[in-house]
Amino acid sequence: MRKPCVSKTTKTIRGESAYRSGHYAERAACWLLRLKGYRIVQRNVRVSKMAGASEIDIVARKGKMLVFVEVRKRATFDLCAEAITPKVQRRFVRSADLFLARNPWAEDMSVRFDLIWVAGWHLRHIQDAVRGE
């Protein structure tokens, strides 16, 4: 017996489009970091949601500096800035703390929290944008 054809809802299509758009923004951010001399250590690092943490978009390294990068893609840079709320910043820092706890090789490195905003085809790298606790 054949199953009825189920069409995708607009919400599902929009979600896939947002995922794809975010994926391309992260790839562009990685290339920007590479051009600036960073080495990408990991991408899309998932840490425990139980601890109030989430995902780290990019972990990069430059010399003895370990950089945690949050990528935001919006229509304008102003909307990117609005998307980085204090709650998002706390989760970002908690996620980095968990990453450092699970990776002893990184304990002697300096840590920095950066943002990369993507608006259309334009990228903006904000260094040391979030202060750790």
Count of the domains: 1
What would you call the shape? globular
How many DSSP H or I helices? 3
CATH domain fold name = Trna Endonuclease, Chain: A, domain 1
Class, according to the CATH hierarchy? Alpha Beta
Q: Largest sheet, if any?
A: 5 strands, mixed
Question: Overall pLDDT, averaged?
Answer: 86
Helix proportion range:
25-40%
Sheet with most strands: strand arrangement: 1-2-3-4-5
Distance between the termini: 59 Å
Fraction of residues in β-strands: 25-35%
CATH architecture: 3-Layer(aba) Sandwich
Helix/strand class: alpha+beta
Question: Which series of helices and strands comes N to C?
Answer: HEEEHHEE
Could you write a compact summary of the structure shown?
By secondary structure, the protein is of the alpha+beta class. Helices cover 38% and strands 31% of the residues.
What is the secondary structure topology, with strand pairs?
Blueprint (H helix, E strand, L loop, with lengths): L9 H26 L3 E8 L8 E8 L2 E10 L2 H7 L2 H17 L7 E10 L2 E5 L7
Notable traits:
single chain, 133 residues, alpha+beta, five-stranded mixed β-sheet, 38% helix
Written description of the protein model:
This protein is of the alpha+beta class and 133 residues long. It has a single domain, classed as Trna Endonuclease, Chain: A, domain 1 (3-Layer(aba) Sandwich). It has helices spanning 10-35, 77-83, 86-102; strands at 39-46, 55-62, 65-74, 110-119, 122-126. It has a 5-stranded mixed β-sheet with strand order 1-2-3-4-5, with helices on both faces. The longest helix is centred in the N-terminal third of the chain and has 26 residues, at 10-35.
